[in-house]
Amino acid sequence: MTQNAPQPQSPLKDRVVSVINRLRVAVQADGGDLEFVDVDDQGVVKVRLHGACVGCPSAAMTLKFGVERNLKMQVPEVTEVVCV
C-alpha cells in the first residue's frame, strides 16, 4: 500500500472521499471539478462533474480511466464510478 492510500480500517465512504479529494487537484488544474455524491453497498461511487468537465468529450475517459481506476486500486470495495 502506498503512503497516500487511505487506511483499510476507515469506513468505506471516508476512504472514497479521501481518494477523490486527492484526484480533484488534477481535475481542477484543467478547469473542472469532481464532487463526491454517494457510495452504495455494492461499491458503486456516484460523483458529479463541474466546470470544464461538463460537456467535455474527455470527461468519460477521465471518469473511467482516471477516477474509477484510482479508486478501485486504492479502495478495493469500489466496483464502479458513475456520474449523476
Summarize the structure.
By secondary structure, this protein is α+β, with helices and mostly antiparallel strands. 40% of the residues lie in helices and 24% in strands.
Word description of this protein:
This protein has 84 residues and is of the alpha+beta class. It contains two helices and three strands. Helix 2 links the parallel strand 2 and strand 3. Helix 1 packs antiparallel against helix 2. The chain starts with 11 loop residues before the first helix and ends with a strand.
* Assembly state of the chains shown: single chain
CATH class: Alpha Beta
Mean model confidence by pLDDT = 90
From the N-terminal CA to the C-terminal CA, the straight-line distance is: 30 Å
Number of domains: 1
The low-confidence parts are none
CATH architectural arrangement: 2-Layer Sandwich
